[in-house]
Amino acid sequence: MREVIATDEAPKAIGPYSQAIKANGFVFVSGQIPLDPATQQLVDGDVAAQTDRVLQNLSGILKAAGSSLQQVVKAGVFLKNMSDFAAMNEVYGRYFTQDPPARATVEVARLPKDVLVEIDVIAQV
Questions:
Q1: Domain, as residue range, for 116
Q2: What is the DSSP string of 43-93?
Q3: Full-model pTM
């Protein structure tokens, strides 16, 4: 059983992909960048501001799937510059205060729309 998840609480997909797919008790959320879902525009600010918006977007998608950030089991964080790790991590830690998920964080050469951070997650439903 496979269900496509779509919500106005997160940016619309900007390519041929779904915001998330719910299958076999899990929800697989596509990488989110710091787009404001109301305007589809990038948020202003540094990596902390961008990380906050990304996590809000992820939360909205998970809610639409019947899950939440507290049910995330794996996260992937993609940073434009690893020197932003501490600032990203500080904001990330505010959203995952107890029993945080497994995570990988990598520096990448470039992200969509030249953002500073992108995060994808897998959560239980």
A1: 2-124
A2: PPS-HHHHHHHHHHHHHHHHHHTT--GGGEEEEEEEES-GGGHHHHHHHHH
A3: 0.97
